[in-house]
Amino acid sequence: MKLHLLDDMRGRWKYQKTIYDLNRKSINNYKQCIDISIADIKQMLVIDQKTLANSKTYSTITLDNNILNKVYSYYNISYKVKLKLTNQLNITYKKKQVNFQEKVYVINSNFFIVIGMIKQYNKYLSISFTSFIKIV
User: Fold this and answer.
1) Which pLDDT tens digit goes with each residue over 36-92?
2) Does the entry feature the keyword Plastid, yes or no (predicted)?
3) What is the rounded distance in angstroms from the CA atom of residue 119 to the CA atom of residue 127?
4) Rg of the Cα trace of the chain?
5) What pLDDT is stored for residue 25 in this prediction?
């Protein structure tokens, strides 16, 4: 099963992230390169993000009739992944009263952006903007 949106994310990327902490009224910027590889194993896609420092973060996405729409529990965090359009992926994490939402927009095969928002008790705590440019 091929999911074009995630297939376009494979490769080496340079990204820049800006995080606005609304409580502290501070701004943090990060720049880094990562490799993203996607393995299709029994209808499960695992996005393996490896940073240059060899630290890893894993996100697991299960396909359900070509629409990503399942809720999981991992380390007491439940999250939902939805494929909204062919170029948009929404991810929602929830732990107690804290909600984290990410919206991934694929502009083309060499550029995508991610907007993240953290809320607690319906109050926004921080907002992040990340842009990814593929290194070819």
Assistant:
1) 776 543 344 455 444 444 444 445 554 443 434 333 333 444 556 666 666 787 878
2) yes
3) 9
4) 15
5) 92
> Tell me, what CATH number does 120's domain have?
2.40.128.20
Contacts of 10 by beta carbon, 8 Å cutoff, 6+ apart: 36, 37, 38
What is the span of the domain harbouring residue 46? 4-134
| CA dist., res. 105 & res. 8, Å (int) | 12
pTM, to two decimals: 0.70
Return the structure tokens found at 120. Answer: 């607690």
Mean pLDDT of the chain: 71
The set of residues, in sequence order, having a beta carbon less than 8 Å from that of 17 and lying 6+ positions away, is: 29, 30, 31, 128, 129, 130
Structural domains in the chain (count): 1
